[in-house]
Design brief:
The complex is a heterodimer of chains A (about 250) and B (about 400). Chain A has 15 helices and no strands. Chain A is mainly alpha-helical and about 250 residues long. Chain A folds into two domains: about 110 residues, Cyclin-like (Cyclin A, domain 1); about 80 residues, Cyclin-like (Cyclin A, domain 1, Orthogonal Bundle). Chain B has a domain of about 80 residues: 2-Layer Sandwich (Phosphorylase Kinase, domain 1), CATH 3.30.200.20. Chain B starts with a helix and ends in an 8-residue tail after the last helix. Classes of the chains: A mainly alpha (about 250), B alpha+beta (about 400).
Chain lengths: ~250, ~400
């Protein structure tokens, strides 16, 4: 893995599951349940992904943007920070931080192209740029995010499993629909994805995992979390999403 | 009370220290810690592209880098739509030391400066950060004599496989040969080469290789160390802008640095290794015997410091690196060219104010000097290796090589 995750701010900023999934008081007041918050985060992670797809940014930019988005909402409420604006702004900021800037003008153009409800359509360049400053503050100016992708490639090579790369890679992509990136070191997430992929593809990796001497309980917890996502959230009924979104303040 | 006015109260604004390409820097007192700080105000680019990418890069990386030899980013706060970066206050920079003829740099002093420079670099490289703008002017000196790497506006995280970078980084005199040949896949070696240039500059008390164009820069490098042979640098011919240079033999290292000790020469030679892959790393350089034999490096607090910067312009903290992709040298660099462009015997006495004044009378920095190191973006005189250049390259090379026979540097 990237040599210095351990010395990074990302590592120091890792949170506990409880800190990540708590509903902030302001959101509780508006009646948000933990489940609502989870659904909204999944919804906007997908939104960032499709916006990133339109803007043709690297996977890494999308991953960083989603990590920013999720990190912001561990500290700021949905009531105060409108996710319809925060999500695209996260992508904008991530594109800069990952050195492949997407012009604000283009981003707003794609925002208007993606069919969502009208809420995302009323924001303009000015709003994105204003939110950028607030986001920076909300992130406490920590912008470097490590991802499981690089360790994944190295680990798969080491395990001699490069043939299951595509499957594992997609699994890693899907982990961004969860808060895992805020809780676990990226290489652990990569290992959990390898673990799942090796079961799906019927590869025997038991010995390899034993030799790694990592805490298999943690790996299994991560794997459980990923499987839970596939079991329960792969397809979310539209009315359920809308119900959660309807609790957002109506902004004029 | 809103948070931004709270932070504004925290820092009591003092005199303006200078103006950079993306904002003003002023001195301030931090009321919480009673520290003197330098606050860099980042102008937002007319509300088109939000927070300046250069500033963002600096914030992003300095938040990850904490070391006695790297400038400390104490705080960041927004105020009236401007972002403010709060740095520890630094008295001076290495360029001012090199230029100040009243300061004698003993071998022990030079060793101390190099050790601190390499320590800072080693930390960057260990965290996969390339500085990409190493020059004496970006090595700031604190009140306790500590040297700190500053201006991370061009710095980048490296290590992603196959990520291509721009080769238009560093002020030209500090650019490694692989950059001059257009390499886009480079590593920490580029910072190391620049460290070598700084080392040489400390010894010689003038910029070591003062090329007037990229081509001339390579000519100066080859004139000193000899044209690299295939065996010395096997990948050289594969570089994007590679051109064959007429062979010139290396000058004996001893003749380039007559006053340097054997170990000093050995380290210099390793820093100036052509093949970036065999060039010494910052960590290895710190373990070089040069740092372990007499004389011991001077303790930072005992290093002689130039008189404090005059208040008001000219500038403090670096801050003049413009945004990508081109790197232009700050005007004060040009000022130094002018300083040494004249008679070396009077150069030391040249008064800073008068030379700056001089300058204004003579129009742009580029007009004012015989050999512009580089130019202001607006004047657009800066030669780069573009395709037109390349077609005429042979001819120019002949010219450059002819020029080389005149004594270098001091003209």
């Amino acid at each position: 893995m990237a040599a210095n995750f351990w010395a990074s701010s990302h590592c120091k900023k890792l949170l506990d599951q409880e800190e990540v999934s708590q509903v902030l008081p302001a959101d509780q007041e508006r009646g948000f349940t933990p489940e609502d918050v989870k659904l909204i985060k999944i919804q906007f992670s997908s939104y960032i992904k499709s916006l990133g797809g339109h803007a043709k940014v690297r996977q890494r930019v999308i991953a960083t943007a989603i990590a920013y988005f999720r990190r912001v909402y561990t500290r700021k409420s949905f009531s105060e920070y409108d996710p319809y604006l925060v999500a695209p702004t996260c992508l904008y900021l991530a594109s800069k931080a990952e050195e492949s800037t997407v012009q604000a003008k283009l981003l707003v153009f794609y925002m208007k192209k993606i069919p969502t409800d009208d809420k995302a359509h009323r924001y303009d360049i000015k709003d994105v740029l204003e939110m950028e400053m607030r986001l920076l503050e909300a992130l406490d100016y920590y912008l470097v995010i490590y991802h499981p992708y690089r360790p994944l490639v190295q680990l798969l090579q080491d395990a001699g499993l490069t043939d299951i790369t595509p499957c594992t890679w997609s699994l890693v992509n899907d982990t961004y629909r969860t808060d895992l990136i805020l809780i676990y070191p990226p290489f652990m997430i990569a290992l959990a994805c390898i673990y799942i992929a090796s079961v799906i593809k019927e590869k025997d990796t038991r010995l390899w995992f034993e030799e790694l001497r990592v805490d298999m309980n943690v790996i299994k917890n991560i794997a459980m979390e990923i499987l839970d996502f596939y079991d329960n959230y792969r397809q979310i009924p539209e009315d359920r999403i809308n119900q959660a979104l309807s609790k957002l303040p109506q902004r004029s | 009370m809103n948070p931004s006015s709270k932070v504004m109260c925290r820092y009591i604004k003092g005199v303006t220290l200078g103006e950079g390409t993306y904002g003003v820097v002023f001195k301030a007192i931090d009321r919480v810690t009673n520290r003197t700080v330098a606050v860099k105000k980042i102008r937002l680019g007319k509300y088109k592209e939000g927070v300046n990418v250069t500033a963002l890069r600096e914030i992003k990386l300095l938040k990850e880098l904490h070391d006695p030899n790297i400038i400390e980013l104490i705080d960041v706060y927004p105020h009236k739509r401007n972002l403010h970066l709060v740095f520890e206050f630094m008295e001076s920079d290495l360029e001012a030391v090199i230029r100040d003829r009243n300061i004698v740099l003993s071998p022990a002093d030079i060793k101390s400066y190099m050790q601190m420079t390499l320590k800072g670099l080693a930390v960057c490289h260990k965290k996969w950060v390339l500085h990409r703008d190493m020059k004496p002017n970006n090595l700031l000196l604190g009140p306790d004599g500590q040297l700190k790497l500053a201006d991370f506006g061009l710095a980048r995280i490296f290590g992603s496989p196959d990520r291509k970078f721009t080769h238009q980084v560093f002020a030209r005199w500090y650019r490694a040969p692989e950059l001059l040949f257009g390499s886009k896949l480079y590593g920490p070696g580029v910072d190391i080469w620049a460290a070598g240039c700084i080392f040489a500059e400390l010894i010689l008390r003038r910029p070591f290789l003062q090329g007037s164009s990229d081509i001339d820069q390579l000519g100066k490098i080859f004139g000193a160390f000899g044209t690299p042979r295939e065996s010395q640098w096997p990948d050289m011919t594969a570089l994007p802008d590679y051109v064959e240079y007429q062979y010139s033999p290396p000058q004996p290292f001893r003749s380039l640095f007559p006053t340097a000790s054997e170990d000093c020469l050995d380290l210099l030679q390793r820093l100036f290794t052509y093949d970036p892959r065999s060039r010494i790393s910052a960590q290895q350089a710190l373990e070089h015997r040069y740092f372990f034999i007499e004389p011991a490096a001077t303790r930072p607090q005992l290093l002689r410091r130039p008189p404090p910067r005059p208040e008001g312009p000219p500038k403090p903290l670096e801050l003049k690196s413009p945004t990508e992709p081109f790197v232009f040298s700050p005007p004060n660099k040009a000022r130094r060219v002018q300083l040494f462009g004249g008679d070396i015997r009077t150069a030391g006495e040249a008064n800073r104010e008068s030379s700056t004044q001089d300058f204004r009378d003579r129009g742009t920095p580029a007009d004012a000097i015989m050999v512009p190191m580089s130019s202001d973006p607006k004047t657009a005189l800066r030669p780069t290796l573009n395709s037109t250049d390349r077609t005429h390259l042979k001819r120019k090379l002949d010219m450059d090589l002819a020029l080389q026979h005149t004594p270098r540097g001091l003209g």
